[in-house]
């Protein structure tokens, strides 16, 4: 179990998933931490550096959000800042900065396989598309906006990566066609009468995991059917109630990471596919 003092984990991701997987955690103080042996009693901190140094004064509501690209070792980082940073993770070196051209804070980042096109979700409910090849003043090339609810995650999906999924705090999960600039699907992933705090999209399994401040977690498919459910504080020795802040699916294994204000825990399914209960 991973715990932090004085900061809040706002983003998690499994990286190096085809070899010895590491857990990447971003926190609202702008720090990025890498852990290994995260599924063992003695978790080991591998590395840490400051992913965002220009956090907006008095603003730690969004925190830090990032997307790892395995093929080139780049980490795309945004959050309580007016810029998106691209990091060479091996060198811990920032290789590019792009202005968000938004007054809202970044709440989710996704990148296509080429590492050129970025989708970025914002606290005002919008998703913007950026082209890294263009000058900073011209790199924002499209805006997708239908919801006014905070975007919790955005993810490229589909074989040609011409579609993306976005999930919001009010439970809406929407599929968008990038070329047509049109929404093609909308489902309700909400937990009754409760705002969703954490949401994760499995880009290959096309599943959505969502968690609330009551520590209920649902896993559902794009037909809106619940295929898994977790009560985070069940057990003889119940955990102290703490809202769920973020979720993260492992890209290759049946593992879901769940982060609260006090810890990060992991849930695993013994099923052979994702269409089963956790």
Task: Looking at this protein, list some descriptive labels.
disordered C terminus, four-stranded antiparallel sheet, protein-macromolecule adaptor activity, mainly beta, Raptor, 278 residues, 23 strands, 51% strand, Methylamine Dehydrogenase, Chain H
SSE layout and pairing:
Layout: E1 9-15, E2 22-27, E3 31-36, E4 44-50, E5 64-69, E6 74-79, E7 83-88, E8 93-99, E9 106-111, E10 117-122, E11 126-131, E12 140-145, E13 151-157, E14 163-168, E15 172-177, E16 182-188, E17 196-202, E18 207-212, E19 216-221, E20 226-231, E21 244-249, E22 255-260, E23 264-268
Antiparallel strand pairs: 1-2, 2-3, 3-4, 5-6, 6-7, 7-8, 9-10, 10-11, 11-12, 13-14, 14-15, 15-16, 17-18, 18-19, 19-20, 21-22, 22-23
InterPro entries: Raptor, WD40/YVTN_repeat-like_dom_sf, WD40_repeat_dom_sf, WD40_rpt
GO molecular function: protein-macromolecule adaptor activity
Pfam families: WD40
